[in-house]
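ping. complex inputs:
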Amino acid sequence: MFNLTVTERCHRILAEYIKEGDVAVDCTAGNGHDTLFLARAVGEAGMVYAFDVQKEAIENTSRLLSKSGIDISNVSLICDSHANLADYISRPNIIMYNLGYMPGGDHSITTTETDTLKSLEIALDLIAPGGVISVIAYPGHAEGAREMDSIKSLLSELKPDKFEVVTITQDNRKNAPVLFLISAHHDL
Ligand SMILES: C[S@@+](CC[C@H](N)C(=O)[O-])C[C@H]1O[C@@H](n2cnc3c(N)ncnc32)[C@H](O)[C@@H]1O
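pong. complex structure:
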């Protein structure tokens, strides 16, 4: 739990909930680390959909997957906004968001409050009973802070008989990233 990056912490927690054969979505492919994590976790019987608005991110993800040597026939890389999630997927078990900009890429291309909120509302609608959504938000830049506040207020309105929302952050570090975990109840 301690001495981990926020993404490592997120992977460790999600690993407890992902099953082989699951359908998983990476809503922000970036350099592909989350997509690779999901592809390994769902195995050859599962399916992974990974979205990014940047062609470069899709290429980086494709390269990382190829280098890893895993079977990529069950990974679909989609160069589109995660706001269009519903056009591609019906009932995923796991949905991940790692917001902000692509490390090593163009920092002006970042997730936005508008698209993220739209996508998250759709994700909450699509998620399978018993499924989990993770969102990592970075409040250290202006758009990230707005995005995080809106996410918080959306999640705080969710009915507790349908979803459980858990938030993990480091309280003694300024602008620490925030990990939101949303579990959909089995009788959703
Ligand atoms: C922090 S990076 C993701 C890191 C990535 N998951 C990894 O493991 O390397 C955020 C990514 O979100 C992408 N992005 C921004 N707006 C988006 C949108 N509307 N839909 C999908 N991806 C978006 C950016 O292009 C960027 O690559």
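Helices lie at 6-15, 33-42, 55-68, 113-126, 142-156.
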